[in-house]
Amino acid sequence: MALSFTTPNQHSRIYSVGAYRPERIVSNSEIVDQIDSSDEWIRERSGIQSRRFAGKDESVIFMAKQASLQALERAGISAQELDAVILATISYPYQTPSGATELLQELGAPKPAAFDISAACAGFCYGVGMAADLIRSGTARYVLVVGVERLSDYTDENDRGTAFIFADGAGAVVIGPSVEAGIGPMVWGSDADNRDAILLEPSWLEIKEGSEKKWPDISMVGQKVFRWAVFEMAPIAVEAMEKAGVTADTLGAFIPHQANIRIIEAMAKAMKLPESVAIAEDVRLAGNTSAASIPLAMDALLQQRPDLHGKSALMIGFGAGLVYAGQVALLPPLPTSSR
Ligand code: UT7
Fold first, then answer.
1. pLDDT of 337
2. Which of 78, 280, 285, 325 sees the fewest Cβ atoms within 10 Å?
3. Final residue of a structural domain among 134, 152, 178
4. Nearest atom within ligand 1 for CA of residue 164
5. Confidence class of residue 46 from pLDDT cuts 50, 70 and 90?
6. pTM for this structure?
């Protein structure tokens, strides 16, 4: 005999977004000497003009908390009403317990389900997809999805291939039930045969066994990742639009992972996005903040273009693994306080 239950929510949507940017702004000129580079080269090859590095007191959980509090306040939902917290990060410095549980303690709401996702720069989109499905299935009503990174801790300041790219910050969204379709199906997957293109190494075991390097740093075969992103990710993004039943000309915004302005522009060109679509370019001032980059870029875009509240946005995250995930979602409505 079949089980007897009903799923209360046909749809879900993003209620709000919150962001936290560390106080310290780091210009290109501050790092070029270490890597024998120039402001011009960095701007031309990546679009990055500056990024933020977290200070001593701006821990992963501190930044996640600030972004979460802003998102909760804008949604008009208390932390006690949350059913689950999903934290996407690769830079929480403890293997267990999860960062999500520390965040819950900090929010004064220690009861919801809580777990971390290790899907690097795709982590936020993985989280949004899971939250949407948890809500549609009736498992949860309100879910907080946070993307946060302190990549300055895991970047070798002398590495020419990464020192100018990776940075710190946090973004969060509150997701809840909706009468209209607000989050489209997620298109996700991986290319695990190329998992060595981005590595955080050595492992703790290797360090314990006396490896030469005493601390894990990110290494990246930049060109390989660049080509994969440019050629493989545009068709994934198109598939996400098809699955959500939208076309490029009805899209409000394109908010891809903020890895490199040239990747963003190449993807937009490959998808033939019309000029009416607003394209997030937060990488210029934020660098690559991995799991935090999409919610940070979403918040920045909505600050610049408040008319985009409630419009549809195509999101796609891709990175270490190599893994990816994308979906179309309605951007949050104007926060109650500013309506
Ligand atoms: O978030 C996860 C996903 N990550 C990404 O999507 C990142 C993808 N990759 C990239 O964004 C780009 O590959 C980078 C921005 C990392 C590098 O740009 P590139 O255009 O791929 O540079 P390249 O590695 O092909 O190097 C081009 C030249 C080389 O010189 P030659 O051989 O042409 O004489 C490098 O030695 O630039 C040189 N170079 C640098 N010059 C100044 C490499 N790094 C630097 C540097 N400053 N930091």
1. 52
2. 78
3. 178
4. 48
5. very high
6. 0.96
